[in-house]
Write a structure and sequence with these properties.
The protein has 308 residues and is of the alpha/beta class. Helix content is 40%, strand content 15%. The protein has helices spanning 16-20, 30-42, 65-72, 88-97, 110-116, 121-137, 160-172, 189-202, 219-228, 256-265, 274-278, 281-288, 296-299, and strands at 11-14, 47-53, 80-85, 101-107, 141-147, 177-182, 208-212, 233-236. The chain binds zinc ion (ZN).
Length: 308
């Protein structure tokens, strides 16, 4: 985005242990999840979405949420671990499990909300007051992620004005961070940049986070557009793994290593080591039983010097 100011430093939230794994067919063991987290910490990740506290019957891959958090307790004091929650019960579990942050999802379209959360938008927003209160009382960072913010698999295009309104209401109820998620990967950079710029104007001073799925190969471009629009926090997943159990044909998050490569080249620091993350690809492919979509692991890091 020539002409747009890019931040010198941003935060990346590593979401591979949660969004990356929740839709995988082959069960990933708690030990494998902990190994993934350990390697991401080693590669510089300082905010990690470790798990979700949802109904294990609906998302079996996240059934070991408590076990994952118990194993992390006290092990990585430099890292802030978040749990994704959909309701007060989930929030209480996240607090009890020792999460430092909690992320609550509000879906921007009514049909998707009913399928994903089992309730409509108004009810979900009302639920945030209680969840936010539980998080605040326990000293957890309160993140709200507005899902399907750029498009819905059941309703089509989502009105940006509605997204801004939902963000304002969530912020008014108390939030430390507001994110917009392109759950099904339909957004394009112009739309993303405009919506973030409008959100930044609407909620000045609020840390803004962006979450992109690379379903249509627009994820990295959208991430750059979000930063130019005022976002300072990006979600990404090692190897580009991931999907959503309730979003038909949604594919993985933007690959952390590909994102780091792009940002490094633009002079935007994240503190993550893209080469180290790319080197995890063969291991990820082995535990998942299929190749991962990230590009850097295949192509290698280009640093400008001729090959030795
Ligand atoms: Zn996602």
């Amino acid at each position: 985005m020539p002409g747009q100011a890019m931040p010198a430093r941003i935060e990346i939230v590593e979401v591979s242990p949660r969004d990356g794994l929740q839709n995988e067919a082959r069960p990933v063991s708690t030990a494998e999840k902990l190994a993934l987290i350990a390697q991401m910490v080693e590669a510089g990740a300082r905010r990690i979405e470790a798990t979700s506290f949802v109904n294990p019957a609906r998302v079996p891959q996240m059934a070991d949420a408590e076990a994952v958090m118990a194993a992390l307790k006290g092990r990585y004091p430099q890292v802030s671990f978040s749990g994704l929650v959909l309701n007060a019960r989930g929030a209480e579990r996240a607090v009890a499990a020792g999460c430092q942050e909690l992320t609550y999802v509000v879906v921007a379209s009514e049909s998707f909300s009913l399928r994903n959360q089992g309730r409509g938008i108004a009810e979900t927003l009302a639920g945030w007051s209680e969840v936010g209160r539980i998080a605040a009382a326990a000293g957890l960072r309160r993140n709200v992620l507005i899902a399907a913010a750029f498009g819905c698999p059941f309703e089509g295009r989502v009105d940006g004005a509605r997204v801004l309104e939902l963000a304002s209401q969530a912020a008014a109820a108390g939030a430390d961070e507001i994110g917009l998620a392109d759950t099904i990967g339909v957004g394009t950079p112009g739309q993303v940049g405009e919506l973030f710029a409008a959100l930044h104007q609407r909620l000045p001073g609020m840390p803004l986070r962006a979450h992109f799925h690379d379903t249509r190969n627009t994820g990295i471009a959208n991430a750059v557009a979000a930063l130019a629009g005022g976002a300072q926090i990006l979600d990404a997943s090692a190897g580009g793994i991931g999907g959503c159990p309730f979003a038909p044909r949604a594919t993985g998050n933007i690959a952390t290593e590909d994102l780091v490569y792009t940002l490094d080249g633009m002079g935007v620091r994240s503190g993550l080591d893209g080469r180290a993350i790319a080197a995890l690809d063969p291991w990820l492919a082995e535990i998942l039983g299929h190749p991962v979509p990230g590009k850097l692991g295949k192509a290698g890091w280009f640093d400008g010097s001729p090959p030795a």
